[in-house]
Amino acid sequence: MAKYNCKKMVFSSSSTVYGQPEKIPCVEDTELKAMNPYGRTKLFLEEIARDISQAESDWQIILLRYFNPVAAHESGKIGEDPKGIPNNLMPYIQQVAVGRLPELNVYGHDYPTRDGTAIRDYIHVMDLADGHIAALKKLFTPDFKGCVPYNLGTGRGTSVLEMVAAFEKASGKKIPMKLCPRRAGDATAVYAAVDKAAKELGWKAKHGIEEMCRDQWNWASKNPWGYQGKKA
Ligand SMILES: O=c1ccn([C@@H]2O[C@H](COP(=O)(O)OP(=O)(O)O[C@H]3O[C@H](CO)[C@@H](O)[C@H](O)[C@H]3O)[C@@H](O)[C@H]2O)c(=O)[nH]1
């Protein structure tokens, strides 16, 4: 970047830097802490970005803290195709729906939430893409300075069971479930404060969980075995 005199950067950070926040919705200037190794990598890279902007005042950096990206392009031609058994909730639900996996393991049903399952702020990937365009536009405004974090979330929390119900409705498929113990390193409830991105980037998520599930299912039903198709 130094060689090409590039001093503007959009960094893909994550809501994982909030750990389990004291207060939700999470505001950007809340205390940061990692609950797992992945979270710590994001936290350290944010710290490095902050250090760079302190050391060299001509750098302009935006940290985009993604909440839980899900869904697919509306065409159904571009979507997530994880290698091996998926770790994340939506690709796992998708693989149960198309018959690749027998049932969903629900990690934790004794959280202090409305139905006992953990709460996240799921965001449509197309909204996330728009958030990047808004961030780039912001970086190129003459008054932008320093290293500034923005949440990319919807501001709404959805439990695991609510997400499963929404997916069942969108797909018409039953998702068999097994209630399991909590997964180590998982937070109880995390969702975004969205005012800063709305005010300063002019960006707001447009899609709700019904549309997220619709587009996830459109991709899944057209590509049940991902990009490669089923191996013989
Ligand atoms: O098979 C599964 C997978 C997940 N969950 C639960 O579903 C919720 C969401 O899990 P997941 O989709 O794995 O998301 P997070 O653990 O919240 O983390 C994701 O979202 C973060 C914020 O964007 C990213 O930083 C991480 O990379 C990404 O894994 C959690 O309560 C999990 O316990 C299940 O019950 N069963």
TrEMBL record:
<keyword id="KW-0119">Carbohydrate metabolism</keyword>
<feature type="domain" description="NAD(P)-binding">
    <location>
        <begin position="4"/>
        <end position="215"/>
    </location>
</feature>
<dbReference type="GO" id="GO:0003978">
    <property type="term" value="F:UDP-glucose 4-epimerase activity"/>
</dbReference>
<protein>
    <recommendedName>
        <fullName>UDP-glucose 4-epimerase</fullName>
        <ecNumber>5.1.3.2</ecNumber>
    </recommendedName>
</protein>
<dbReference type="Pfam" id="PF16363">
    <property type="entry name" value="GDP_Man_Dehyd"/>
</dbReference>
<keyword id="KW-0520">NAD</keyword>
<dbReference type="InterPro" id="IPR016040">
    <property type="entry name" value="NAD(P)-bd_dom"/>
</dbReference>
<comment type="pathway">
    <text>Carbohydrate metabolism; galactose metabolism.</text>
</comment>
<dbReference type="InterPro" id="IPR005886">
    <property type="entry name" value="UDP_G4E"/>
</dbReference>
<keyword id="KW-0299">Galactose metabolism</keyword>
<comment type="similarity">
    <text>Belongs to the NAD(P)-dependent epimerase/dehydratase family.</text>
</comment>
<dbReference type="GO" id="GO:0005829">
    <property type="term" value="C:cytosol"/>
</dbReference>
<dbReference type="InterPro" id="IPR036291">
    <property type="entry name" value="NAD(P)-bd_dom_sf"/>
</dbReference>
<keyword id="KW-0413">Isomerase</keyword>
<dbReference type="GO" id="GO:0006012">
    <property type="term" value="P:galactose metabolic process"/>
</dbReference>
